[in-house]
Automatic annotation (TrEMBL):
Broad class of enzyme this protein falls into: transferase
Source organism superkingdom: Bacteria
Residue positions binding phosphate: 58, 96-98
Catalytic activity line of the entry: tRNA(n+1) + phosphate = tRNA(n) + a ribonucleoside 5'-diphosphate
Protein name: Ribonuclease PH
Protein species of origin: Rhodovulum iodosum
Family classification: Belongs to the RNase PH family.
HAMAP family: RNase_PH (MF_00564)
Lineage, top ranks: Bacteria, Pseudomonadati, Pseudomonadota, Alphaproteobacteria, Rhodobacterales
Entry keyword Nuclease: no
InterPro entries per UniProt: ExoRNase_PH_dom1, ExoRNase_PH_dom2, ExoRNase_PH_dom2_sf, PNPase/RNase_PH_dom_sf, Ribosomal_Su5_D2-typ_SF, RNase_PH, RNase_PH_bac-type, RNase_PH_CS
Residues in Exoribonuclease phosphorolytic domain copies: 1-112, 130-195
């Protein structure tokens, strides 16, 4: 369970001794993700996507982001030909659910890999370094780290930053909401994100006893 303010996400990782068909006999492992929000994760009840018979575009986009982000920190050769699926279920949302899912998802992934190494199924650690994510934005003219929902909904600029524990960039999503932003403002948010991710990486390592 990762709790970032009032955003709470339950993250689990499941091991399977198989890979998608396009990776069969490749010797490469695979890490993927699924994401969902419970109906009362937000202020008013949302309809379950299952009742609509399909996932919404936002859900698909977020779970692809989580999968891409986590794979960036994995040596897929060392993982071997197996798949780890990370499930991220939002039980309470107050902004930054995709960032919390990535950060908590890595901890679940770390625990799953530790289990593989303990049993000797994997010899070399396939996790290169922690992967974490944080949101940043410009709210009321000021740069803000880890936007909550009211800040995010009114921010003039907001972005999501996915990085490794050593500050290497994996993915950046930034957009202006009714106002443009300068290169200097972008750099300021990047520096804020680096600070936030460093703190998250430290918390991740503490959570798994490293």
């Amino acid at each position: 369970m990762i709790k970032v303010g009032d955003t709470h996400v339950l993250c689990t990782a499941s091991l399977e001794e198989r890979v998608p068909p396009f990776l069969k006999n490749s010797g490469l492992g695979w890490v993927t993700a699924e994401y969902g929000m419970l109906p009362r994760a937000t202020g008013s009840r949302m309809r379950r996507e299952a009742t609509a018979g399909k996932q919404g575009g936002r859900t698909v986009e977020i779970q692809r982001l989580i999968g891409r982000s986590l794979r960036a920190g994995v040596d897929r050769v060392a993982l071997g030909e197996r798949q780890i699926t990370v499930d991220c279920d939002v039980i309470q949302a107050d902004g930054g659910t995709r960032c919390a899912s990535i950060t908590g998802g890595w901890v679940a992934l770390r625990l799953a890999v530790d289990k593989l190494m303990k049993t000797g199924e994997v010899i070399s650690d396939p996790l290169i370094e922690p992967v974490a994510a944080v949101s940043c934005g410009i709210y009321a003219g000021q740069p803000v780290l880890d936007l909550d929902y009211p800040e995010d909904s009114e921010a003039g600029v907001d972005g999501n930053f996915v990085m490794t524990g050593h500050g290497r960039l994996i993915e950046v999503q930034m957009s202006a909401e009714g106002a443009t932003f300068s290169r200097a403002q972008m750099d300021t948010l990047m520096e804020l994100a680096e600070t936030g991710v460093a703190q998250l990486a430290a918390a991740q390592k503490a959570a798994v006893g490293r």
